[in-house]
Design brief:
Elements lengths: L2 H10 L10 H10 L3 E4 L4 E6 L2 E6 L9 H13 L5
Antiparallel strand pairs: 1-2, 2-3
Helix pairs in contact: 1-2
Amino acid sequence: MNSKQQKIYNDIFSNPVRSNIPWKEIESLFQSLGAKISEGNGSRIRVELNGERAVFHRPHPERNTDKGAVISVRKFLSNAGVGL
C-alpha cells in the first residue's frame, strides 16, 4: 500500500464519515490489498478480499462516494480483516 492508498484507508475509517472520497481511489485501495475485482451489470463491481465478498455500485455521474457507500466499504474491509 502506497502513501496515497494509506490516506484513502485513513479517510474511510475517519469520523465523521467522509463523503468526498473518489471511487477510483477506493478501487485502487482494494487492489493494493489483494482484492479480486470483477465487473457486474451496469455500474456494479464485485469485490472479494480474504474470503469476504461484496457488491458495490460505482457512483455516477459523480466521481465521489456518498457517506452510505463509505460506511459499506468500511464494513467490508473490517469483515475482511483489514479494518482498524
